[in-house]
Write a structure and sequence with these properties.
The structure is a homodimer. With about 210 residues, chain A is α/β, with parallel strands linked by helices. Chain A contains 8 helices and 9 strands. The first copy, chain A, has a 7-stranded mixed β-sheet with strand order 5-6-4-3-7-8-9, with helices on both faces. In chain A, strands 1-2 form a two-stranded antiparallel ribbon. In chain A, a hairpin with a 2-residue loop joins strand 5 and strand 6. The structure holds a DNA duplex (22 and 22 nucleotides).
Chain lengths: ~210, ~210
DNA sequence: TTTTGTGAATCGATTCACAGCG
DNA sequence: CGCTGTGAATCGATTCACAAAA
């Protein structure tokens, strides 16, 4: 039971799956369940049961052969592994439709991430959107430095993305979720995750045949 | 020179890269270049030069050792490989902030995909958004059948996604780009691509450390 | 019998290393 | 030389197969 093995290996793919597992487990837990089996979790996430067991092994949580995994402590173990201890401030740049969609996502589903929004458009700034204050970009660098924000979401047009990202990194940001359809060139110590809607749709079109 | 080899293997990952290559090549071409080297394309997409050569090999286009790859015919070869012959109709369900962001993406950058939008909210329907007509959901099934639409983008809330997807599939859709943070359960002949914003941000948070 | 935990095998994707060419 | 094309090697992720437990 719970023999942590201080594993170094955590691939991006695995972190994605863990994130999925957690969401499902939270729902299962809210629905009143107390424990679950690897094959149940697997079915709910469309992965194999072995995969689930491997991942949970990496997390360092062990189940029992009788009732599978206890959901509550498993969630704790996953949070510990993923480093989800406290709330995390997130800078969100660009409050157009996409930016507001992301804001809504964060505020509704993810109380863990606390966004601070920035935009160039003065009609948007100094307003409260989805319960989040929106500040003018001029205050971006200072705010990020003061609040020690390390994570940012880039929702600005493609033409602005590189410049904005450089400003973010200069202010102290070390991880970026980029929605702009461009390759960002930033120091290697910055983690970049790209979400490219055009590419994703292209993929669907290809494999739909 | 361009000895097509009728390759079966095209992994999702590779299709993503090809899509990236094409975007870069279009820009390079528009900037006046006539040819490019694998290492240039590689640098612009943050992949290795060998990877680029392998991918282009799969596409079936050969370059020359002197001037690398000719951009124009390479783009043609890629389009042929990806099956990008004519315009493709796409059903977009849910025209909230996210839906409108996707619409804007498609209309601005991707004249190839022709969207038809649907929403439950009658204040949105019968209006033109980003140059696209928005119809009430009641007309969704009929429109999809009539226009033979095979691809859809799901931008509805998580609670609606499963039901809406089933309707889409029943109407003839065979590929779905899903933004809702839920696992869709659909027949195996339906290709599903999930974009999960929460999961992506979770990943950034983890690897930012 | 069902389920977890896991070494070993497999599968797939990427890189290495080098041949061929201009 | 530098560049493309590619067999072979490598690396990583997933699955197989089975031991242990209840």
């Amino acid at each position: 039971m719970a023999l942590a093995k201080t594993i170094p290996g955590a691939s991006p793919r695995m972190v994605e799956r863990l994130s999925l597992y957690r969401r499902v487990l939270q729902q299962t837990s809210a629905a009143g369940s107390h424990s679950t089996y690897s094959h149940e979790l697997a079915a709910a996430c469309r992965v194999s049961a072995v995969q689930v067991r491997r991942d949970l092994m990496t997390v360092g949580y062990s189940g029992s052969t009788k009732s599978g995994y206890e959901i509550k402590p498993l969630l704790v173990a996953m949070d510990t592994f993923l480093g989800n201890t406290g709330p995390v401030d997130v800078a969100l740049v660009g409050v157009g439709h996409l930016g507001r969609a992301v804001l809504a996502f964060l505020c509704w589903r993810h109380p863990r991430f606390v966004p601070v929004a920035f935009d160039r458009d003065t009609r948007l700034t100094e307003r409260v959107l989805d319960g989040v204050h929106c500040l003018p970009v001029e205050q971006m660098a200072d705010t990020i430095q003061e609040q020690q924000i390390r994570i940012a979401v880039v929702c600005v047009p493609a033409t602005e993305a590189q410049r904005v990202s450089e400003q973010l990194v200069a202010a102290g940001v070390r991880g970026i979720l980029n929605f702009a359809p461009v390759t960002l060139f930033l120091p290697s110590y910055v983690f970049i995750e790209n979400i490219d809607i055009s590419v994703a749709l292209e993929k669907v079109a290809f494999f739909t045949g």
